[in-house]
Amino acid sequence: MTLATHSLRAGGREVPLLAGPGALAELPRVLSGAGFEGRVFVIADEFALGLHRSTLDQVLAGAPVLPVSGLEADKTLESVSRVWDWLIDNGAQRRDALLAFGGGVVCDLVGFAAASYLRGVGLVNVPTTLLAQVDASVGGKTGVNHARGKNLIGAFYQPLCVVADTSLLATLSPRAFAAGMAEVAKIAMILDAGLFERVERAAAGLGPREADEVAPLVARSIEVKAEIVERDERESGDRMLLNYGHTIGHALEAGAGYGTLLHGEAVSVGMQAAARIAARMGMLDSESVARQTALLTALGLPLNWSADSDEILGRLSLDKKRAGSRQRWILAERVGSGRIRDDVPAEVVVEAVSSITLR
Ligand SMILES: NC(=O)c1ccc[n+]([C@@H]2O[C@H](COP(=O)([O-])OP(=O)(O)OC[C@H]3O[C@@H](n4cnc5c(N)ncnc54)[C@H](O)[C@@H]3O)[C@@H](O)[C@H]2O)c1
Ligand SMILES: [Zn+2]
């Protein structure tokens, strides 16, 4: 199978995006093509490293490797600080690059370490989860959590390149795989009806080991995300569409305690709440709502969550997407197309939240 190659023009440079089985082997060629001559410091999710060390060593023999926890609870400034300590101890210079090997947690954490160490060193993203391949590794958002909220500390920082090797996904649990598919479904529902149809056709047979079926979906998701980021790197317009399902999703995730409900699972439930809001606003017809519900179900994703709806509503007021006093909502108007609305009445939100909470 051939590799899909896209690129993303952002942050004043061209970011190559490679996707497909075996893509990691291309990394040295991509780096030298970009004129990179420094050392590569690998910061790796310890679990993914245990599974894929030999693949990594084949490509980057001799590179220093720091294993880190890939847990959401460890996506903190303390973890970034340990990365800084290790880089200083090992004499990392400005011309060098950090390579993030892991899921979205490690990509976000290492991205922020790269943005801040020596005021910015190179960054290479090698995402090892489906969610990180289709979303977290592309677009330059980096950062960590704060006790008061998710992703509150961070920076926009574009990597030198992103290498999404879909063969690395074979070791994912079905649950983690499904969580990644939630972000694919999100991109499809709000931006790409063709991708939505492809996922609908493939959903029943999809799994972590179906690299041939998964690779084109990964490649297309990356391409759609890259197009949006090119138009709106700083998220002042269209990029906000990628937050579909995330307003309520983030509130659910924080309320559940980071790590209890996977990010993609929270997004799935958040998409259902958003579809309910869109239907109540007269924007989305019942057939489109039903297609979204059917797709998330076929992917093995949750449609609701046992949470206290008052607590979720309380958390919504800390959401970063809140502009001024008006909460912005990303709502679908049909399959494959979304819009930003800031005129959703509070009672519609209250009803949607109670429709997806089981307590
Ligand atoms: N920056 C962005 O634009 C952006 C976008 C979406 C999500 N995110 C962030 O991404 C994070 C979620 O990412 P995630 O879902 O990848 O979770 P994750 O990074 O926590 O990884 C999930 C689990 O998978 C394990 N793992 C990693 N690679 C594996 C492999 N190949 N085989 C088996 N297990 C493997 C990890 O050890 C971890 O336990 C959240 O923190 C979210 O905020 C960021
Ligand atoms: Zn997300």
Model description:
The chain has about 350 residues and is of the alpha/beta class. The chain is about 45% helix and about 20% strand. The chain is built from 13 helices and 13 strands. The chain has helices at about 25-35, 45-60, 75-90, 105-115, 130-135, 175-190, 195-200, 210-230, 245-255, 265-280, 285-300, 310-315, 345-355; strands at about 5-10, 15-20, 40-45, 65-70, 95-100, 120-125, 140-145, 150-155, 160-165, 320-325, 325, 330-335, 335-340. The strands form 4 sheets. Strands 1-2-9-6-5-3-4 form a 7-stranded mixed sheet, with helices on both faces. A two-stranded antiparallel sheet has the order 7-8. The termini are far apart. The model has no long low-confidence stretch (mean pLDDT about 95). The structure holds nicotinamide-adenine-dinucleotide (NAD) and zinc ion. The site of zinc ion has 5 residues, from helix 10.
Number of helices: 13
What is the straight-line distance between the termini? 47 Å
Low-confidence stretches: none
Strand content: 15-25%
List keywords for this structure.
359 residues; alpha/beta; seven-stranded mixed beta sheet; two-stranded antiparallel ribbon; 13 helices; 46% helix; 20% strand; binds nicotinamide-adenine-dinucleotide; binds zinc ion
